[in-house]
Amino acid sequence: MTVDHSNWDLVKRTKEVLPDNFFWGDVNGKNYLTSMKNQHIPHYCGACWIFGATSCLSDRINVMKKGAFPEVTVSPQVLLDHDYYDNGCHGGDAFMAMKWIKEHGVQDESCSLYRAQGHEETNANVQPVCKDCVGQNCFVPDSYHTYQVERYGAIPPNDVEAMMTEIYARGPIFCSVDANPMQNVPFGFAGVWKTSEKGDVDHVINVAGWGTDENGVDYWVVRNSWGEYYAKNGFVKVERGTDSMWIESYCGYVIPKNTWSNFKLPTDDLSTMKAQSDSQQETKLDADKVKENLNIVSETGVEKKSENVFSRNFKRPNPDPYVHPVDWNKYKPVVKTRQPKDYVPTESLPKSFWWGDVDGVNYLTWVTNQHIPQYCGSCYAQSTLGAMSDRINILQKNLDRVTLSVQNVLNCGIGSCEEGGSLYQVYMFAHSHGVTEYGCNLYLA
Fold first, then answer.
1. Among the options 82, 119, 203, 371, which is catalytic?
2. Is the pLDDT higher at 367 or at 7?
3. Which of 89, 176, 384, 440 could form a disulfide with 250 if both were Cys (CB 3.0 to 4.6 A apart)?
4. Is 431 among the catalytic positions?
5. Which of 224, 369, 408, 441 is catalytic?
6. Could you tell me the pTM of the whole model?
7. Which fold has domain 22-257?
């Protein structure tokens, strides 16, 4: 695709005005980047062009939202299924991907999970842009969110300051490079990768920042789409100012259209509840009534559903498989230290609190859908590993966002999609064996 560089619409700043070091993964202690991806699982797929485009769009949506909940991760699979400008897993153009999104919009990964399978295959099994499944029946939900592109374009080639300005002002960018030298970066590499090799331009990455190391070497902070185990947590520093791997020759940007202002968030209901609480006298809660209105598994194994702020506009015809209750008399907690309930006074707790917004920072992992690509009763694993992922993010101050793999637990026989499972067994498995990240073991239901 021939790209016009003349309509790049940002005033370039000089290096003297820009900071010496900048990274969207840590802006004054706040991480705006979405979760790391791996384009090569569950099997090889040459979809770097989609990941470069969609990761850039997702990051910039989160930048525009100031990192607020929820983390928006738009779906690469939607383009694999429906972008006929390009060749799916057999390659494509990130600018054409942006063109397709601008014309059609794109949904998030809770609508269309990555399958590493494109429309160009003989038995492609193309899926709708959004689907959900109950039992053997899959359908398009009554409503779902679509993200839009305001405009996109190319950054003037070999203009380091233009790249830095675009990154600093609006978010990460996408760049086409030679993949060959990137394949030689060793696991755990934390230095600056230098190479003079300039072969074919056949890979797309994201540039999310820049810096200078202790030896005075300038570098770009590059995010790849080869999983967390590539280089250092999926990121590598590439020498800046030398057009290494063509990294400064073929870069582009996207400006998202704000289509999320009307998102209904948990805080909306919390504010309403707080206002109602402040206007009424305190009353003693009826424990039986509380249990009746919560998602509690009764002694007979019938799961009672409650309406919540994430509910869709359709009703599920049947509940998820039975979640095995924990016999706390049989299983003793692994944690031996004092618990918060032992030393935090109840009266010191705030009236409202949630980890989706703590002083403007969202510590919660992305919103998932356990029922795609087909129905799976994995709520017991989704909830436990979701909580573990959130707590890891809290411990790491959200600067290295982690999403643990539910598929890892399913593959190891801890419960099943058909029979459900035990929350405690998931925790025991994680304690004994550990759990890999999502980028190592994709959810297949």
1. 203
2. 367
3. 176
4. no
5. 224
6. 0.81
7. Cathepsin B; Chain A (3.90.70)
